[in-house]
Design brief:
alpha+beta, single chain, 37 strands, 874 residues
C-alpha cells in the first residue's frame, strides 16, 4: 500500500494504492453482510441507481427491442395466463421450469436500468403472478417441481434449481420497490426449505451443482432479517451440494455449471471464515483455464462439457456460460474486493458476449468460439460435443436456455459498474459511460457522471454534482494491462503513476463541479498460448482483436418476422501473422476513426478502432469436413505465400473470427509444415472407434491415451490393413506423420510390424520413393519424408504384428496445393447469388424449409470449393 497527500484546490487529497479492498468495518449506508458473516468490502447499489449512457445504453436499448424485450411473442413457455409460475399453487398447464425465471431476472433489471415504465410494469405483473403460486407451507413455483418422481436423481425431492434464478428476480424487485410481499415470500420459502431433509440439497443434477446460488440468496435475506436459522440453512445447503472445494479438480465439467458454481466455496467463505474457502474460486478458475482455457476471450473450451483433448480455440462456449461467468466475476468482485475479477468480467463482456448475438439482438447462437469462421446450421459434432444446430443465429427455442438466460448480461453489467464501499465511498469497478446517484460519507447524496468512450478510448472523466461538500473515498480500478496511467483532480495530477491490477483510493472533500480524469494509456500487447501450439492473441488495452473476415449472411427459417441467420466468410481467413521477432508489438499499426464513437461499436461496419499487420496465408489451414475451422498446429507455420497487410478488429465485433493466430515463417528450419484437413477412410474400424480420430486435431499425451477419440483396426489380428486421406484439391505431398495407438498393459493393440506410404496416381496406388525410415516408436510422432508427389490422396499400408491389432491416434499430412490458396469463401458479393446460380432453386432472402436449406448450405460449401479450384487451376 502506498499513499500520498497533494494539494487539491483548497482541500487536501489523500491518494492510496490498494491491491484489494479489505474492509476495516461494516458499511452503514448500504446493505452489506451482518455479523457473523465476513464484512463486505463492496456492495451492489439498488437497481435504478446507475443510468447507462453511450454504447452501454445502446446495448440495453437494443436488448429491449430485441429478443429479451420481445420474447413473450415467440417463447412457448412465456404464457402468463397459463404458466405454472404465475397461477395459484403453480397449477398452470405451461411448464416454465428454468425458462421463466431465466428470462424474468434479466428482463426486470433491464426495465430498472432503462427506467422504462412499460418494461417495469410488465415485469411487475410477472413478479406478482409468481407470488400467487406460493402455497401455505411456503413452497412457490411450479407444482410439477414439488416432488420429482420421473428422475431417479431426485428420488421424490423437489427441484430447487429454478427457484434460484427466480430468487434473483425477486431480490431486484424488492430492492427497487420495497414491496415487503417479496421479502415475505422469500422468507416463507426458506422456512419451508429448512424443514426438508438435508439430503434434499444434494438431490437432482442441476440443483446439486448450483446450490451455491441459493446460498447467496440466503445471505441476502439474512442481511435484511438477521435471523440466525437462515445461516443454518445455508450451511446445510453448502455441505450437501456438489464439492466445488476439492483441490486440483472440479466435480463437474459442464460449461454453465462451472461458470455459475466455481465461485461457491468463496461465497461460502463469508460464513465459514475459512481461508481455504476464500481461495477456491481462484483455484477452480485456474484448474479449468489451465486445461481448457488457453485461448483469448475470457473463458474456456466447453461446447457443452469440457472434454479431454478438446482445448483448441475452435471449441465453443455457451451463451448461457458467458452471462453466468460475467455474473460470477461481478459477485466475486464484491465478495473479495479483488480487482482481478472485474477485469475478467470486462474481458468477457467486451470481447466475447457481444458476438454471441447479432447486432440487433434478435437472435443468438448457442456456441461462440475464439476461432469460428462459418456459422451455418449444420451439425458440427464431434468437433463440438452436441449434434444439431449450434453455430447459426436463431431467436427460437432451438437454444431455449440461452434464449431466455442471455438477458441478464448487460443489465447486471450496468448495475455493477459502480459499487458502494465499506467505508461509505464509491468504487468505479467496470468502466462505461454512466451516471450514478448514491449516498456517501455521512449519508449525503451525490451524482457522479462518467464520460468515456472506454474501451475505445483511454480516458475516463468523472464529474461531481452535490448539494453540499461531502467527504468520502473514491476508488478507481486500475487494469492489469495499464502500466503508465495517471489521475488528475481538477486538472491537477494527484497520482503520477498507477499500479496495475489495483485500486487508487482518493479521499477528498468533494464539491459540486469537481472533476476527476483517469488516463489509462493502451499499448499493443501479444499473448502467446504455449499450450495451444504457440498461437498468439493481440490485445490493445482491454480489447482483444480478431482478423476482419468479410461476412455474408443468409436468412432461413419459416418466420420472416423472426429470421434465422447463417454466416459465411466472404474473404480469406487462413492467415498467420508475420511478426517482428525482436519486437512483435511493433508489427502493428493502430488506426482510430475520427469523430465520436458510434452508438453501437460492436460490428464490422462501426468499429472505431482497427489494427493492421503483415500476414501470410497458410494454404494447409482449411475448414474440415464439418465446415469447422481446423485445429491449430505448431507455430510458426511454414508459408511462402505473398505477404499481405491484413486488418484486425475488436473481437467483440467479429461474428466470424480468428483471434488465436498462428505465426508464420519462410524459414523451414524453424517453421512447421502443417497438415491439411482430409476425408479419412480405412480398411476396417472397430465399431466404438472412429476414422475421424485420424484427423480431429486432438494431440495425444501418449500412445496409450484413452481420453481422446481413437481409431483402431480391432478386432483384426496380424492382418494387412490401410488408412486413407482424400483431399479436395490436388496437392504436393512429401511427408506424413503418424502417432500410433498402443495399449500395452491393458489391451491388445500394438504399434505395427511395418508400414509404407502410397499415393493415388490416376486409379492406381503407387508406393512413394526416396522414403526414410518408417518409424514404429511409441509415445511420439513417427515422421517419414519422401520424394514429393502430386496427388489427391495418400494412404498408409500397414502390416499388424502377429496375434495383435493396432490403431492410430492422429495421422497428419502436410500439403502444398498445386496452385493458389484453398481456404474457401464466396468469391462473389452475395451468398444467395452463388447458391442460386449453382442450385437453381433458391429465390429471395427467405428459405422456408430447414431440411432443404441444410442441403443448400452443403451444396454451397462444395460449390465454393469448386469455384476456388477453378480459379486457381486446381
Amino acid at each position: 500500500m502506498a499513499s500520498a497527500c497533494m494539494a487539491g484546490s483548497s482541500r487536501a487529497d489523500t491518494t492510496t494504492t490498494v491491491l484489494s479492498i479489505q474492509p476495516g468495518a461494516r458499511g452503514t449506508l448500504y446493505k452489506g453482510n451482518l455479523a457473523p458473516l465476513q464484512p463486505s468490502p463492496l456492495m451492489r447499489l439498488p437497481p435504478g441507481s446507475i443510468r447507462p449512457q453511450g454504447w452501454l445504453l445502446t446495448m440495453l436499448q437494443t436488448q429491449r427491442s430485441g429478443m429479451n424485450g420481445r420474447l413473450e411473442e415467440i417463447s412457448p413457455w412465456l404464457k402468463f395466463d397459463t404458466s405454472d409460475w404465475t397461477t395459484p399453487n403453480g397449477a398452470g398447464s405451461t411448464q416454465g421450469w428454468e425458462r421463466v425465471p431465466y428470462w424474468l431476472r434479466g428482463y426486470v433489471d433491464l426495465g430498472y436500468c432503462l427506467q422504462d415504465p412499460a418494461v417495469i410494469s410488465n415485469a411487475t405483473r410477472w413478479i406478482k403472478g409468481v407470488m400467487t403460486s406460493q402455497r401455505t407451507n411456503g413452497y412457490f413455483g411450479p407444482a410439477a417441481l414439488y416432488s420429482v418422481t420421473n428422475d431417479a436423481s431426485f428420488n421424490g425431492a423437489p427441484d430447487l434449481w429454478p427457484k434460484m434464478p427466480m430468487l434473483d428476480a425477486l431480490r431486484s424487485y424488492y430492492e427497487y420497490t420495497g414491496d415487503t410481499n417479496a421479502m415475505a415470500l422469500m422468507r416463507d420459502h426458506c422456512l419451508w426449505a429448512n424443514g426438508l431433509p438435508a439430503s434434499t440439497f444434494g438431490a437432482g443434477y442441476w440443483p446439486m451443482m448450483r446450490m451455491g446460488d441459493h446460498v447467496e440468496s440466503i445471505y441476502w435475506l439474512y442481511n435484511r432479517l438477521g435471523e440466525s436459522w437462515l445461516l443454518d440453512l445455508a450451511g446445510k445447503m453448502y455441505t450437501n451440494m456438489a464439492r466445488w472445494d476439492t483441490p486440483g479438480t472440479l466435480p463437474n465439467w459442464h460449461n454453465v455449471n462451472i461458470a455459475e458454481s466455481f465461485r461457491a466455496p468463496t461465497v461460502y467463505w463469508q460464513q465459514s471464515g475459512n481461508a481455504t474457502h476464500l481461495q477456491f474460486a481462484e483455484a477452480n478458475y485456474q484448474v479449468v483455464k489451465s486445461l481448457y482455457g488457453q485461448v483469448p476471450g475470457g473463458a474456456f473450451g466447453a461446447d457443452e462439457n469440457c472434454r479431454p483433448g478438446y482445448h483448441d480455440p475452435r471449441q465453443g462456449f455457451e451463451t448461457c456460460g458467458w452471462v453466468e461467468l460475467m455474473r460470477s466475476f461481478e459477485i466475486l468482485t464484491r465478495v473479495t474486493g479483488n480487482p482481478v475479477w472485474a477485469e475478467r468480467c470486462e474481458d468477457v463482456a467486451l470481447n466475447s458476449f457481444p458476438a454471441a448475438l447479432r447486432t440487433n439482438q434478435l437472435s443468438l447462437h448457442y456456441l461462440t468460439s475464439p476461432n469460428q469462421v462459418q456459422l451455418d446450421q449444420n451439425n458440427k459434432s464431434p468437433d463440438v460435443q452436441n449434434s444439431g444446430t449450434m453455430f447459426s443465429y436463431s431467436p427460437f427455442e432451438v437454444y431455449h436456455c440461452c434464449q431466455h438466460n442471455h438477458g441478464q448480461g448487460w443489465p447486471y453489467f450496468c448495475e455493477e459498474t459502480w459499487l458502494a464501499t465499506w467505508d461509505n465511498g464509491l468504487c468505479a469497478s467496470l468502466y462505461a459511460a454512466t451516471a450514478v446517484q448514491a449516498r456517501v460519507g455521512d449519508g449525503g447524496t451525490i451524482t457522479l457522471t462518467e464520460t468515456t468512450d472506454f474501451p475505445f478510448s483511454d480516458t475516463v472523466q468523472l464529474s461531481v454534482a452535490a448539494t453540499n461538500v461531502v467527504s468520502f473515498p473514491l476508488y478507481l480500478r486500475v487494469p492489469q494491462w495499464c502500466s503508465k496511467g495517471w489521475v488528475q483532480v481538477k486538472n491537477q495530477i494527484v497520482a503520477a503513476s498507477l499500479t496495475p491490477s489495483s485500486y487508487l483510493r482518493i479521499q477528498r472533500a468533494w464539491a459540486s463541479g469537481d472533476q476527476v480524469t483517469l488516463h489509462l494509456p493502451r499499448q499493443v500487447a501479444l499473448h502467446t498460448w504455449t499450450a495451444n501450439n504457440n498461437a498468439v492473441s493481440v490485445n490493445y488495452g482491454p480489447l482483444t482483436f480478431s482478423l476482419r473476415i468479410g461476412e455474408q449472411w443468409l436468412s432461413y427459417g419459416t418466420n420472416p418476422a423472426w429470421p434465422e441467420w447463417a454466416g459465411y466468410p466472404a474473404t480469406p481467413w487462413n492467415y498467420g501473422l508475420s511478426l517482428d521477432r525482436g519486437n512483435p508489438a511493433a508489427s502493428f499499426r493502430v488506426i482510430t476513426n475520427a469523430g465520436p464513437v458510434p452508438a453501437y461499436p460492436f460490428s464490422l461496419e462501426t468499429v472505431p478502432i482497427r489494427l493492421q499487420v503483415k500476414a501470410r496465408r497458410i494454404p494447409e489451414w482449411r475448414m474440415d469436413s464439418l465446415d469447422v475451422v481446423s485445429a491449430l498446429q505448431p507455430s510458426p507455420a511454414y508459408s511462402t505465400q505473398a505477404e499481405e497487410t491484413v486488418t484486425l478488429v475488436p473481437m467483440g465485433a467479429a461474428r466470424l473470427r480468428i483471434s488465436a493466430f498462428p505465426t508464420v515463417s519462410t524459414n523451414c528450419a524453424v517453421a512447421t509444415r502443417w497438415g491439411a484437413p482430409y476425408t479419412p477412410s480405412a480398411s476396417w474400424c472397430w465399431g466404438s472407434d472412429t476414422v475421424q480420430a485420424l484427423c480431429d486435431g486432438l494431440l495425444p499425451a501418449s500412445s496409450s491415451d484413452t481420453t481422446i477419440p481413437r481409431f483402431t483396426w480391432w478386432d483384426h489380428l496380424g492382418t494387412a490393413e490401410w488408412v486413407r486421406a482424400d483431399f479436395s484439391t490436388t496437392n504436393h505431398i512429401s511427408q506424413v506423420s503418424v502417432y500410433w495407438y498402443d495399449d500395452t498393459g491393458f489391451g491388445q493393440c500394438r504399434v505395427p510390424q511395418s508400414w509404407v506410404v502410397e499415393y493415388l496416381s490416376g486409379t492406381n496406388w503407387v508406393q512413394v520413393s526416396g522414403a526414410g525410415a518408417y518409424g514404429v516408436a511409441r509415445d511420439t510422432w513417427n515422421t517419414v519424408q519422401f520424394t514429393p508427389v502430386q496427388t489427391t490422396a495418400v494412404r498408409l499400408r500397414v502390416q499388424l504384428q502377429s496375434g495383435v491389432s493396432g490403431g492410430i491416434l492422429e495421422f497428419r499430412v502436410p500439403v502444398q496445393p498445386v496452385a493458389g490458396v484453398s481456404a474457401y469463401y464466396p468469391l462473389d458479393g452475395n451468398v444467395n447469388d452463388v447458391v442460386s446460380r449453382h442450385n437453381g432453386t433458391l429465390a429471395g432472402r427467405h428459405i422456408r424449409q430447414r431440411s432443404s436449406q441444410r442441403q443448400l448450405h452443403r451444396t454451397f460449401s462444395t460449390f465454393c470449393i469448386r469455384i476456388i479450384e477453378n480459379v486457381h487451376g486446381g
